[in-house]
Amino acid sequence: MPIIGHEAIISDLKDLSVRGVLGHGYIFVGPAMVGKRTVAAALGHYLEKGVFEPAGIETNHQEVLQDIKIIDIAFMKMLNPDASGDSIGIDAAREVKTFLWQKPNTSVRRTLIIDNAELLTTEAQNALLKITEEPPSSSLLILITSDIESILPTIASRLPKIYFGAVPTEEIEKWLASEEHLPKAKAMALARRSLGKPGIAWRMLHDEVFQKNLELAEVFLKTTPTARRDFIKKLIDPDDFSLRIFLDAVIMTLAWETPSRAKSQFWHKTLKLYEGVNNFSLNPRLQLEALMK
Q1: 3-state secondary structure of 115
Q2: Residues 151 and 173 occupy one common structural domain
Q3: Are residues 179 and 97 in the same domain?
């Protein structure tokens, strides 16, 4: 998807690059789906091709660009299809070291991006520590996270943080109308529903997995106590079920509903479980059943 908003951040990154003072590592911090990954990918593209846009990188970044790599859950699954759970382990640190210690082919930097860095295991973060202490001169490491507390202090203290906030609704609406060709009323409604996060709007239009999880989240929240156990059993049965992604959809669905004290309490309870998913290996069935009690 294109970059929506964050003009000041982009201007600053370009200026640092032009003046030759771009750092060797950053942490992009902010709410999920506001555009952190998109800007990071566009920066890698800019360093290699001189164009600040993510075009082509998200589809097959290794063929389109030679000096940028993105590590995320999908990449880790590709490395180890038998791996269980949503975590980024020690294999990621080895990939980082191998990639960044090579000289760039065409770019001024080799850019390595770790998306959802809150999923990095402690072992993986400790392995990354040496890279942050003694980075290769031609390297750029970007950690992307919505939870800065999940990053070890030893790493967080060494990398400058760039904070990404919500994008104004008007900017998202304008993009939906001009680029996605939505009627004005639909663009306005979807922009408001995106809660300042362009990634939500894009996924609601294009991501079938995201759409399915939103539908399941709505059913989950409305399921009666007597039917709940059977629903959860069917929900987690597919091999590709991700508790983290499903809880994302639940949290988002709750944010759209009319606030109440009970809903607020449940929202905080779900957030706490989501944080636990990022840090521990949990049994999805037991956790979802306990969540609804």
Answers
A1: coil
A2: no
A3: no
Instruction: Output the DSSP codes for 140-188.
Output: EEEEEES-GGGS-HHHHTTS-EEE--PPPHHHHHHHHHHTS---HHHHH
pTM above 0.90, yes or no: no
Please give the structure tokens belonging to residue 228: 């709940």
Which one-letter DSSP state was computed for residue 117? G
Whether 67 and 149 share a structural domain: yes
Size of the chain in residues: 293
Range of the domain at 119: 7-163
CA dist 55 to 51, 65, 251, Å? Answer: 9, 10, 30
Q: In what order do the strands lie in the sheet with 25-29?
A: 68-71, 110-114, 139-145, 25-29, 161-163
Distance CA(224)–CA(128), nearest Å, equals 46
Backbone angles phi, psi at 25, to 5 degrees: -165, 145
- The series of mean pLDDT values per 10 residues for the chain, 293 residues long, is 93 96 96 94 93 66 72 83 76 91 92 94 92 92 94 95 96 95 95 94 92 92 87 89 88 83 83 74 83 81
pLDDT at 83: 66
Q: Are residues 80 and 121 in the same domain?
A: yes
Q: How many domains does the chain have?
A: 2
